[in-house]
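User: Can you predict the 3D structure for this chain?
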Amino acid sequence: MNNTFTTFLTLGLIVISMLTMNAQKQKMEHTALIIIDVQNDYFPGGKMTLEKAEQAAENARNILEYFRKNNLPVIHIQHISTNEGATFFLPDTEGAKINHLVLPREDEKVIVKHFPNSFRETDLLGYLQSKNIKNLVITGMMTDVCVDTTTRAAFDFGFTNTIIGDATATRNRELNGEVVKAADVQKSFLAGISALGNLYARVISTNEFLK
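Assistant: Here is the predicted structure, written as structure tokens:
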């Protein structure tokens, strides 16, 4: 009797696990991960260090591992500065390389951009359309520049967006001689982009996404 009960219990757990996995797979259908500009110049020792860059990158890596485990599309965005007077992400420099925490695999798409908007003068839109992607999970740097700009552009193109808030990072800003702390910039931009009922994007944490 005990063996029979154990067998049925085991089978029941297997069925529940399979149903859960199938439901999760359907939930993530037509969804891709975008990792924006997680490059060496943003990390300690780089030419444009961000606050909590390493923490944000670790969280981005956790999200990346989830997408890889579930064989979901991943797009890496790499900014290469071509504008006159640029001081970071310069061509053929160590600082412009994608950080080791989220280093692309050979089968993952890498898109090089030269503007904050990842869609501008790139094949990002065409690639997403070719994969029938409708939903984007967005991570990366900087929160108030390339992440914000790309997310708003994605909304205009009809995508439904989720930003992993703690997988993004920025730095102190200055306005009229006053320093605006990075934490305040971070909160303000994420609050703005998720305003009006998550109009441009839903903002959640890494743990919320993975649970």
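The two ends are 36 Å apart (CA to CA). Residues 17-23 have pLDDT under 50 and may be disordered.
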